[in-house]
């Protein structure tokens, strides 16, 4: 088998990412089973895997994405047809307005306390 693959691999320009779709689907089926049996949501951690070309496939099995900042949240909103969850200890003040528009859930330890009225105003617009 390696003899057959090697000539093909020599023609691929690097850098590149190679994905075994069958193995990905097998793992996604396991996650879907856990989700169904536990009655919970399972989210894709984009920090660990952000190959957005396969987001449509992953979205068939998972509920959404997690992000730790504005750019990951944008990627999740634009490329993954599911929920966008964002977590960070703090956010830059200039990012708050957009994050509240593109995120379904925001968790931050200092989000409301540090930004006060701005954060509350943005949250009230979501309700």
Can you put this structure into words, describing what you see?
- This protein has a four-stranded parallel sheet, covered by helices on one side.
- The model has no long low-confidence stretch (mean pLDDT 85).
- By secondary structure, it is α/β, with parallel strands linked by helices.
- It has a single domain, classed as TIM Barrel (Alpha-Beta Barrel).
- The protein contains seven helices and four strands; from the N terminus they run H-H-E-H-E-H-E-H-E-H-H.
- Helix 5 (96-102) packs parallel to helix 7 (117-126).
Could you please say which CATH topology applies here? TIM Barrel
Strand order of the largest sheet: 1-2-3-4
Count of alpha/pi helices: 7
CATH superfamily: Alanine racemase
What is the string of helix and strand elements? HHEHEHEHEHH
**pLDDT < 50 stretches:** none
- Specify the helix fraction band: 40-55%
The appropriate CATH architecture is Alpha-Beta Barrel
Find the structural class using helix and strand composition.
Answer: alpha/beta
Distance between the termini: 57 Å
Give the strand tally: 4
Q: Characterize the main sheet.
A: 4 strands, parallel
- Overall mean pLDDT score? 85
Radius of gyration: 19 Å
Beta-strand portion reads 5-15%
Which class in CATH terms?
Answer: Alpha Beta
Shape call: flat
Any idea how many domains? 1
